[in-house]
């Protein structure tokens, strides 16, 4: 894309992996269960490649194909009991029993089924429209989206492959124009397809209720036909007397099996079939087609409804499956994420604590909500403004490293913009720039900054070399990098949650711990997302040993590779010196409190998932009207002193037993509280942490919840 004053990106071309390669042949687990896949890249002429039989690269997301459309669509149509009935009566219309022509019975059925099939075809077509030589050794196909174990042998060197090198289907390139890739999983072996299910045949509650009504009409119709056939059989048998017909004027000239008094049971049976055809108007054939027309019109109105149009993203509402239009009014539970759904996912660096001093001013949306609830006047937070001494400037440097981001330069204006894996990291870099530490260049192995000299007031160029990145994951709850500065010093810089960071501080690194904790509590109560930052200086020998173990762990191929990497990282992420804490705000989207309030008034139960601390989550719940004044809170968590002591002792069996007992006790207390409030108008809110929810879902019976 080119032209005009469009900003151009400073492109950084990366190799397949920036980790150190290894020539070690780690084949201990290869060939065993779960580790048998081998891929020859651009080398299909090899004899071994011809022996490998894997799934093709074709996958289908539509419900129908040209080959199966008619049989599958007909099967779907005749799942409707009324269509089966009209097909039977249409077939019977070709017999002499019919009181009307076969065309008049079959043609409406063909029109109804044909119209519905055309609608299905149009909707399915809409879904369809939306829709170097190396050796790679990796895990077998599986449904886990968050792990990938393998390595690549390229030019007699070995590179580890991790989830960061794995591009899943529907991935979008943002920070580069192109990539080089190797197809590892194809067709039904891909992770997305293994996690997907066949498109279900969706039927609304109204349609299912219609079937029950039709069954009732069937019963009435069969009852009428049965009673009529019994009376007809009795009358036919009694009609013959002394060899003559009493009601000869009602009999055809040629008496056959259908009207023979000598075969009255058979005549009654055939009369039953005739009655079924005569009474078929009890079930209107236009019922389904009328509803289909209404649903198509409803879908058109939904698609054109301006009140359901999202102007910012230029996205109107889309009714993709018209069969479920009426289900919109039957929703009783909503599951929602917080970040990006209730909030804007646009982070603003609002406050921070550096060396025990709180910086930043401003009032958050949560604080405004708290002030409204308490009826107290809202006072602006003036923050703390002090002279930045050299030692605090040194501390601020630590805020600038522990993230992964890409910079873009508008060559016309020289303005630098940043993109990061998460909005939090972009907020950190922007905030650092505002206080004199501007990130302006990054390569595969280094980062360059403009640092404001506290003495001369001029900008000084600094360069830092990247050595290792210890990635964030949900169990570690932290991320670290190891860099070498211009003086040759090795620094480990770490950011993470307070629950894992404070326990890794050295004895001489806790000077500001108490004040930092107090500041973080204030930030959490204000609804801000907090992180703790710390660092330590490494000696060469310690780093050398760590790097060897880390490289070996990264290049290993085993099912427990991630655990081994975490164990290696655990050895060096200790004896840290506290720098401070950050606090960023993710503002609520406009109209969220009003929307949730209306949903609650409609009796809809709302579940919100968030990764925030429990105090922060509760305050945000009040801010977005998920929690309301006077609502009784049922809090279930495992943050008890007993369980924390067991976690420090690393006694997994005791932790599981104590956790289960604690959760059961808390649930029983909650049930008793709810039972005692029956008959009253009390409203309850359940607040449960991730550990307790996992315990309930995996270790215990769900019925107790």
TrEMBL record:
Example GO BP: phospholipid translocation
Subcellular locations according to the entry: Membrane
Keyword terms of this UniProt record: ATP-binding, Magnesium, Membrane, Metal-binding, Nucleotide-binding, Translocase, Transmembrane, Transmembrane helix
EC top class named in words: translocase
Gene3D superfamilies in the record: Calcium-transporting ATPase, cytoplasmic domain N (3.40.1110.10), HAD superfamily/HAD-like (3.40.50.1000)
EC number of this enzyme: 7.6.2.1
GO MF annotation, one: ATPase-coupled intramembrane lipid transporter activity
P-type ATPase N-terminal domain sequence ranges: 39-105
Cited PROSITE patterns: ATPASE_E1_E2
Species, as recorded: Kingdonia uniflora
Cofactor: Mg(2+)
One GO CC term, this protein: plasma membrane
Family, similarity comment: Belongs to the cation transport ATPase (P-type) (TC 3.A.3) family. Type IV subfamily.
Record-annotated membrane-spanning stretches: 105-122, 213-235, 268-291
Protein name: Phospholipid-transporting ATPase
Record-listed Mg(2+) binding positions: 337, 339
Enzymatic reactions: ATP + H2O + phospholipidSide 1 = ADP + phosphate + phospholipidSide 2
Membrane disposition: Multi-pass membrane protein
Ligand binding (ATP): 337-339, 425, 472, 495, 529, 610-612
Keyword NADP: no
Keyword Protein transport appears in the UniProt entry: no
A Pfam entry, by short name: PhoLip_ATPase_N
């Amino acid at each position: 894309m080119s032209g005009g004053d469009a900003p151009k990106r400073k492109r950084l071309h990366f190799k397949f992996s920036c980790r150190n390669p290894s020539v070690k042949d780690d084949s201990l687990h290869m060939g065993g269960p779960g580790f048998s896949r081998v891929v020859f890249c651009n080398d299909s002429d090899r004899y071994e490649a011809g022996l490998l039989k894997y799934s093709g690269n074709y996958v289908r997301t539509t419900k129908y194909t040209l080959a199966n459309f008619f049989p599958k669509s007909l099967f779907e149509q005749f799942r409707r009991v009324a269509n089966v009935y009209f097909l039977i009566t249409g077939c019977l219309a070709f017999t002499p029993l019919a009181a009307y022509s076969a065309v008049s019975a079959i043609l409406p059925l063909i029109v109804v089924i044909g119209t519905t099939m055309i609608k299905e075809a149009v909707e399915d077509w809409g879904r369809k429209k939306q829709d170097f030589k190396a050796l790679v050794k990796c895990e077998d196909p599986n449904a886990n989206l968050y792990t990938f174990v393998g390595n690549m042998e390229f030019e007699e060197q070995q590179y580890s492959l991790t989830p960061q090198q794995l591009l899943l289907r529907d991935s979008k390139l943002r920070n580069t124009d192109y990539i080089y890739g190797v197809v590892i999983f194809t067709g039904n072996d891909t992770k997305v397809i293994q996690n997907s299910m066949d498109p279900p045949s969706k039927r609304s509650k109204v349609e299912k209720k219609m079937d029950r009504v039709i069954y009732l009409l069937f019963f009435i119709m069969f009852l009428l036909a049965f009673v009529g056939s019994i009376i007809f059989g009795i009358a036919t048998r009694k009609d013959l007397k002394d060899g003559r017909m009493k009601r000869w004027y009602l009999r055809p000239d040629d008496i056959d099996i259908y009207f023979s008094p000598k075969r009255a049971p058979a005549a009654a049976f055939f009369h039953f079939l005739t009655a079924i055809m005569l009474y078929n108007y009890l079930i209107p054939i236009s019922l389904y087609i009328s509803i289909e027309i209404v649903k198509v019109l409803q879908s058109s109105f939904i698609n054109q409804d301006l009140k359901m149009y999202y102007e910012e993203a230029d996205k109107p509402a889309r009714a993709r499956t018209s069969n479920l239009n009426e289900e919109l009014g039957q929703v009783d539970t909503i599951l929602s994420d917080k970040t990006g759904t209730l909030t804007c996912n646009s982070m603003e660096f609002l406050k921070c604590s550096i060396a025990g001093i709180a910086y930043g001013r401003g009032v958050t949306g949560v604080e405004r909500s708290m002030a409204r609830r308490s009826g107290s006047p809202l006072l602006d937070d003036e923050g703390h403004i002090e002279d930045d001494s050299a030692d605090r400037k040194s501390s601020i440097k630590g805020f600038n490293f522990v993230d992964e981001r890409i910079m873009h330069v508008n060559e016309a204006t020289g303005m630098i913009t940043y993109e990061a894996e998460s909005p939090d990291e972009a907020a950190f870099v922007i905030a650092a720039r505002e206080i004199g530490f501007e990130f302006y260049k990054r390569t595969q192995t280094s980062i360059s900054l403009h640092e404001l000299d506290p003495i001369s007031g001029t900008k000084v160029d600094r360069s830092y070399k990247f050595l290792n990145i210890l990635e964030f994951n949900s169990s570690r709850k932290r991320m670290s990098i190891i860099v070498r500065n211009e003086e040759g010093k090795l620094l480990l810089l770490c950011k993470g949650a307070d629950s894992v960071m404070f326990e890794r501080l050295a004895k001489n690194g806790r000077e500001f711990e108490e004040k930092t904790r107090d500041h973080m509590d204030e930030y959490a109560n204000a609804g801000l997302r907090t992180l703790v930052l710390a660092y330590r200086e490494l000696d060469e020998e310690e780093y050398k040993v760590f790097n060897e173990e880390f490289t070996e762990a990264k290049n290993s191929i085993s099912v427990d590779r991630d655990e081994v990497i975490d164990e290696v990282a655990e050895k060096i992420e200790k004896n840290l010196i506290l720098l401070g804490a950050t606090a960023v705000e993710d503002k609520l989207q406009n109209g969220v409190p009003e929307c949730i309030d209306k949903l609650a008034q409609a009796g809809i139960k709302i579940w919100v998932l968030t990764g925030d601390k429990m105090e922060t989550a509760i305050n945000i719940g009040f801010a977005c009207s998920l929690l309301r004044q006077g609502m009784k809170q049922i809090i279930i968590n495992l943050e008890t002193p007993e369980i924390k002591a067991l976690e420090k002792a690393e006694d997994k069996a005791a932790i599981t037993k104590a956790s289960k007992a604690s959760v059961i006790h808390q649930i029983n207390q909650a049930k008793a509280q709810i039972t005692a409030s029956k008959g009253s108008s009390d409203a309850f809110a359940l607040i449960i942490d991730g550990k307790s929810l996992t315990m309930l879902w995996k270790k215990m019976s769900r019925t107790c919840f």
